[in-house]
Design brief:
glucose-1-phosphate adenylyltransferase activity, ADP-Glc_PPase, Glucose-1-phosphate adenylyltransferase subunit GlgD, NTP_transferase_dom, 9 helices, globular, nucleotidyltransferase
Length: about 290
């Protein structure tokens, strides 16, 4: 795929309290040897994405130590490869920090200028799922979508109750309900938005230039929602296993227990490619 991958991995996950005191939620351990970012990153690599930018901000040391040069994901290469997009001081960013997801993309606009990719795939580093992203990309192209959003059933388990909802008509998203407003009308919305987006790279640049300088710093609230009527924003319904571990300690704990389910284990580790991670070859312990 001629696609640029962007992983949002700068959040703390406030509901996890002490678990993310010294690391971002994308660096939390899951299933023993893995970190949560491994799944989104491996999904991209398995789909043929060879250029990935990881946006970091909160306490990134553990994450950067884990990712390294990207060797374990075959991203230590001359063409494309892995980019760590850390906030830095500049005339355009005197506060030295990202104000939101759209602002983070805008401050790293150069990565959207370079390369021959036509589309951008945006995902989150703390979502646990496994799928063939090439199918979603083909749907994105076949429907001539400006933006394609991965969606799931709103009656899903752990994590989905804390997500934005969308209203769809013939596969097109016509209304976006932010999670803060879901309680006002719990029955509204066909499904939940899972935080995975395909978007035309040139369109994304234009939207960022028009929104962020005017104070719209969030990708959904400032860019996607205001343009639902003017853009072809499509949904791709996903029915597989999916968890957002940052929503609560209970969800994080249950996600780790889910690996005991043979069907979930098969879906995560034996279908749609491998899950890559950094391995540490340590000597066995001796207990005396």
């Amino acid at each position: 795929m001629k696609v640029l991958g962007i992983i949002l991995a700068g959040g703390r996950g406030e509901y996890l309290s002490s678990l993310t005191q010294v690391r971002t939620s994308a660096a939390l351990p899951v299933y023993g040897k893995y970190r949560s970012i491994d799944f989104t990153l491996s999904n991209m690599v398995n789909a043929g994405v060879s250029k990935v930018g990881i946006i970091t901000q909160y306490s990134p040391r553990s994450l950067m130590d884990h990712i390294g040069s990207g060797k374990e994901w075959d991203l230590d290469r001359k063409q494309g490869g892995l980019f760590i997009l850390q906030p830095y001081y500049s005339p355009y960013n005197p506060s030295m920090g990202y104000k939101g997801t759209a602002d983070a993309l805008f401050q790293n606009i150069n990565i959207l200028r370079r390369g021959n990719e036509d589309s951008v795939l945006i995902g989150s580093g703390d979502h646990i799922f496994k799928t063939d992203l090439t199918k979603i990309f083909r749907y994105h192209l076949d429907t001539a979508a400006d933006i394609t959003v991965l969606t799931g059933n709103k009656d899903g388990e752990c994590g989905m109750e804390g997500m934005d909802r969308v209203v769809c008509k013939n596969g097109r998203i016509i209304k976006w309900i932010e999670k803060e407003k879901v309680s006002e009308n719990p029955e509204e919305g066909d499904c939940v938005a899972l935080g995975i987006y395909f978007i035309n790279k040139f369109l994304l640049r234009e939207l960022l230039y028009s929104a962020v300088p005017n104070g719209e710093n969030e990708l959904v609230k400032g860019i996607i929602t205001p343009n639902l009527s003017s853009l072809n924003v499509r949904e791709y319904r996903y029915n597989g296993y999916w968890r957002d571990i940052k929503l609560s300690k209970k969800c994080y704990f249950k996600t780790n227990l889910d690996i005991l389910n043979p069907e979930i284990r098969r879906e995560l580790f034996y279908e749609n490619g491998r899950v890559f991670t950094k391995l540490k070859d340590l000597p066995p312990p001796k207990i005396t």
